[in-house]
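Researcher: Go.
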Amino acid sequence: MSASARSSWLWIIAAFFVVAGANHFAHPAPYLSMMPSYLPWPDGLIWISGVAEIMGGLGLLLPPTRRFAAWGLIALLVAVFPANVNVALHGWPGVNLAPWILWLRLPFQPLFVWWIYRVGVSHAGGSRSGAGGQGCPVL
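Model: Structure:
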């Protein structure tokens, strides 16, 4: 992947996560309704995941934090996967989507993990830590 393509993908992923994270605060109801009932403190988990998405998205744009941000977003995607399974199994209250669409969302989670890994971890720069500004300078 060329440096310009990597840079473009980083901006796309970053924008996606910053907007999605901000949406946790602007419109929390859909996120609350998809939360599995066995998880404690739903409001706090929505807030934490929103902050994590915003910080992870912004972190992808900075070479010194890119690798850490990518791993953080990957961990976040793994952590929210149970909520997506919950929605596929029980429906998404307040959101009018066909059940097959809710199931179709699930395979996209590993695809997003791969996408973030590809542009944020495996191409984060010349050093193992991703520091030093090598690789794909974005800002």
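Model: Helices lie at 3-26, 29-34, 42-60, 63-90, 99-104, 108-121.
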